[in-house]
Amino acid sequence: MQASATGNRATAHDEAAPIAENRQTHIYLPAKHAFAIISPLISMKSVNKVILLGHATRDPELTTTLSGQSVCTFGLATNRLWKDKNGEKKCAAEFHSLVAWGSLADVCAKNVKKGKPLYIEGSLKTISWETSKGIKQYRTEVSVEEVAFLGVKDADADIPSENGQ
Question: The pTM is what?
Answer without folding.
Answer: 0.65
